[in-house]
Amino acid sequence: MSGASVLYDVPGPKAKARNRIYSVIGALAVLGLFAFAFLRLNSKGQLDPAVWQIFNYAGVRTSIRDGILTTLQVFAVAAVLSLALGLLLTVARVSDHKPIRWVATGFIELFRAVPLLITIYALWVILLTSRDALGLTGSQPQFWALVAGLTVYNGSVQAEVLRAGINAVPKGQREAAYALGMSKTQVMMTVLIPQAIRAMLPTIISQLVVTLKDTSLGYIITFEELLYTARLMSTNILVNGNDTYIPVITVIGGIYVAMCLALSALANWIERRGRRARTGIGVAPAAEPVAAADAAESAVPATDAPAATKD
After folding, report:
1. What's the average model confidence in pLDDT over 226-255?
2. Helix (H) and strand (E) counts for the chain?
3. Closest by Cα among 259, 229, 293 to 70
4. CA–CA distance, 128 with 114 (Å, rounded to integer)
5. Euclidean distance between CA atoms 55 and 66, whole angstroms
6. CA–CA separation, 91 and 89 (whole Å)
7. Hey, how many other C-beta atoms are within 10 angstroms of the C-beta on 122?
């Protein structure tokens, strides 16, 4: 039997020629679509050099910088809190006590099912109505509503990721830990969770990238993060009577892509570092031959009695 795949038939000469024709037609269609978009944008004045000169203004650069810092601030707080909440929900999810397990399961399923935008908006309304009681001022209701929404949603997702990692650990390791007299807490914290985190690290980082992108939902509650800043700039800055949506969207989109790629690169670096980490007990260096011989001689017990002789 040949090594060809059995999942599909190998195309013949006619099929290969037909596929080439389809590829050329598809490429021409894509190029035509790009050419049409380019001509339309050019006719609307979106590709004029004067429109792109707005990024040379100090005020525009300051607004973009402040938006990036605000976005990263929300992401940092939400990422830490979501990981902590995910760890807590994971422990509760695999608990032996049914009430705790039911509460954790209901919490996870609820906030995974409700759209994140609705969660953020509902939390914003609640914080606005109780702002005076909580002592919140300025933009703090928007900030904490966005952080809380990102935390409960991504924490629920991270909990399921960690639970999958715990279930992937071989049961023999858990049984061996119990056989050594370790408690359930010790088994969870020293055997299961470290291996689950290491196994699911790519998925955890991928969800953190989602958290970073979801910070853009703060625009719906008028929180001045990067996307809201871009929206204000594109509507308030006019060049020759034309708006600046295309330049602003292009630059802001590039910034989001750069931040997500940087986070993904960090994840890959952490994963490589984890694979190169030394584990186990190091091997003791071999002893010198002379030193080994002296040690062997000193280990032989000395006897004072003379050896017995046969008459």
Report:
1. 85
2. 14, 0
3. 229
4. 21
5. 14
6. 5
7. 14
**What is residue 299's predicted lDDT score, i.e. its pLDDT?**
47
Cα 163 to Cα 204: distance, rounded to the nearest angstrom: 12
Nearest to 267 by CA among 217, 203, 221: 203
CB 234 within 8 A of CB 248: yes
Measured CA to CA in angstroms, residue 60 lies from 72, 230, 243, 305 at distances of 18, 10, 15, 99
Please report, in angstroms and rounded to a whole number, the separation of the first and last CA atoms in the chain: 85
Alpha helices in 94-192 (DSSP H): 98-113, 116-129, 131-134, 140-168, 171-179, 184-187
**pLDDT per residue over 25-82, tens digit each?**
999 999 999 999 888 888 877 778 888 888 888 888 899 999 999 999 999 999 999 9
Confidence of residue 295 (pLDDT cuts 50, 70, 90): very low
Tokens representing 190 are 């020293």
Helix (H) or strand (E) holding 60: helix 58-93
Answer whether 112's CB lies under 8 Å from 85's CB: no
Residue 173 in contact with residue 191, Cβ under 8 Å? yes
